[in-house]
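In the current project phase, we have settled on a layout for protein records. One protein thus recorded is set out beneath this paragraph:
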Amino acid sequence: MDRFISHKRIKLSPSYSRSKEWLESSFIDETNEEESTDVKLTTLVSLYPHVEQSTLLDYLVAFNGSVDSVCQTLKSWDERSSSKKPKAGIGYQTSLSSFRNQNEIHDKIPVSPSSKPLTRKGQTLHLYAPEDVETHTPCSIIHNFLPAQEAEDLLKELLQEATTFEQAKFKVFDNVVQSPHTACFYVDSLEEQKVQKTQYLYNGSHLSDVRQITPQMRNVSEEVRTAVNKEIANRIQHFYPGGKKLMYQSPNEWLPNAAFVNCYKNGAES
């Protein structure tokens, strides 16, 4: 309690004042509702520093101001997460949206990511989960859509190919710079290979190293085509105005016919 008396009140997010109006209208048994709400939120912030303040406030609203109910929900989520320890290897950061207990507070929390843009002028927006990326950007990330063996075969093939990749050179404000990583451009036919070498410019110059796609690339192209077109259909249905393709978007199905392959030896080459 000394912490709440001796320290300044925490700085609240803009969404706090809007949600607090609804919160205060529901709690009529407190003598000083504004201070009570502040203390409750401060308590939750101290207990769950890894959860966004606005998310904690949404929980508080959903559970009619019951700090105990919010703690129980977050505790049950933490227990489920800890019981599913990931295997050794590359992991993915969890989306904040997964903190919500869908069975208990479904449709109660007034959160609408698409109507509350996260971008701020002059600030970098860090997104780690596929659902956050597709909600706040015009992009999508699709993890692990290839069968394990096909992915392994493709990796081995490209690692062998990468030994012959080169660092690209290009001009930036009349200065010639060199890419920190190596790369190569692949196309699906000999005819397209000739066209890319003679008719197109990349970073102000022709590409000298254009190759035809490898056997394993050709082998997985059908899975790539299926996954990409499925995601295009998903974006049209859930993100595009009126559930229709954009004005200048091709009416035809997307077909894989080229690939830029980058090779990074370490983080310094990104």
In short: The chain has ten helices and four strands. The longest strand covers residues 175-187.
